[in-house]
Design a protein that fits this description.
With 333 residues, this protein is an alpha/beta fold. It has 2 domains: 148 residues, Rossmann fold (3-Layer(aba) Sandwich); 148 residues, 3-Layer(aba) Sandwich (Rossmann fold). 45% of the residues lie in helices and 20% in strands. The strands form 2 sheets. A 7-stranded mixed β-sheet has the order 7-6-8-9-10-11-12, with helices on both faces. A 5-stranded parallel β-sheet has the order 2-1-3-4-5, with helices on both faces. Helix 2 crosses helix 11, helix 3 packs across helix 4 and helix 5 packs across helix 6. The protein is elongated and about 60 Å long. The chain starts with 6 loop residues before the first helix and ends with a strand. The N terminus is likely disordered.
Length: 333
């Protein structure tokens, strides 16, 4: 028996086959377990890190990737210790993931030294060009790309904010981890602003909790002093200590990221972090589907948050200018 198929039916059949093939290929890809490495400089117990990870995983799920179904995320938490971070970097590479996500410059620098073949995606890294992580923002080249959170020129705004909240300030100590790649550029920007604002600046390099205590105690001995804490692998882990000491010694302090002010710091100004982690998930999705890190441009922040903690201001005996409160994205009463 001969069956005659009309032209319309034949085209419909061929069209259905053309659609079915990529759908089948995608179903096969979805059925294969893909491995993602995650190197975090913070502790696993950090509440903000948990919030970022949740946003990252949810965004991945929205793109069709679910933990335990078609992806396996290998988390490693460095807890602010450069030696631990290096050990975990080597461990992750040994697992041969298809992409590695890093948070912060110290974790990224370590991963850069460990691999030039596995795609590495960074989040919350400042000055990726100046730090030598990428060749350019538009064309990163190599195996690294990601999401920048600050430029060195932004550091001047932290000192300007400190002076606006506490006009009596004539000295400021910048608490930072010296080995953090963007630190020198930030310090130069703050020093340039300090001369025009009439502020004498002190570089307070720290490596651990004991160093932080010494640095803040020294700053507190001088009258009319304040603090700026750069966001890095050491200060982030010990932020509760820094905030507590600033309050103890009644030192006005400004921080780079929102969660410092939420934790009791006086004020913060920086990029919106949750947005960056959602963006990181979209880049992971694209890499898992075949795109190269070298072809994905570095994303600069477009949304910044000013947070003022009025409760802390009151404890320090400060009156925050109404104009500053009006500009704030969030005011903590």
């Amino acid at each position: 028996m001969t069956v005659t198929i009309g032209r319309r039916e034949l085209l419909a059949a061929l069209g259905g086959a053309a659609i079915a093939l990529p759908l089948a290929a995608r179903a096969q890809q979805a059925g294969r377990m893909r491995r993602i490495g995650m190197l975090m400089g913070l502790a696993a117990s950090d509440p903000d890190a948990s919030r970022w990870v949740s946003a990252f995983e949810q965004a991945l799920q929205n793109s069709g990737w679910s933990e335990g179904r078609n992806i396996k995320i290998e988390y490693r938490w460095g807890t602010g210790d450069a030696r631990v971070i290096r050990a975990y970097a080597a461990e992750l590479i040994g697992l041969a993931p298809e992409v590695i996500v890093t948070r912060g410059s110290t974790a990224l620098r370590t991963m850069q030294q460990e691999t030039n073949s596995i795609p590495v995606l960074f989040v919350q890294v400042s000055d990726p060009i100046g730090s030598g992580f990428v060749a350019s923002l538009a064309h990163p080249s190599g195996n690294i790309t990601g999401f920048a959170n600050h430029e060195d020129t932004m550091a001047a705004k932290w000192l300007e904010l400190l002076k606006e909240i506490a006009p009596q300030i004539t000295r400021a100590a910048v608490v930072h981890y010296p080995e953090n790649p963007p630190a020198p550029a930030f310090l130069r920007a703050i020093e340039a602003a300090a001369s025009s604002l009439g502020v004498q600046l002190t570089r307070a390099g720290v490596h651990d909790a004991a160093g932080i205590e010494r640095a803040i105690e020294v700053a507190a001995r001088e009258p009319n002093s304040g603090l700026i804490a750069l966001a890095d692998v050491v200060t982030n882990v010990h932020r509760d200590l820094i905030i507590r000491l600033a309050t103890k010694y009644r030192l006005p302090a400004v921080y780079a990221l929102r969660y410092w002010a939420k934790s009791g710091g006086l004020a913060s100004y920086g990029a919106a972090m949750v947005d960056q982690w959602r963006g990181a998930a979209s880049y992971v999705d694209r890499i898992l589907r075949g795109e190269k890190a070298a072809d994905l441009p570095v994303v600069r922040p477009t949304k910044f948050e000013l947070v003022i903690n009025l409760k802390t201001a009151k404890a320090l005996g400060l009156t925050v200018p109404p104009t500053l409160i009006a500009r704030a994205d969030e005011v903590i009463e």
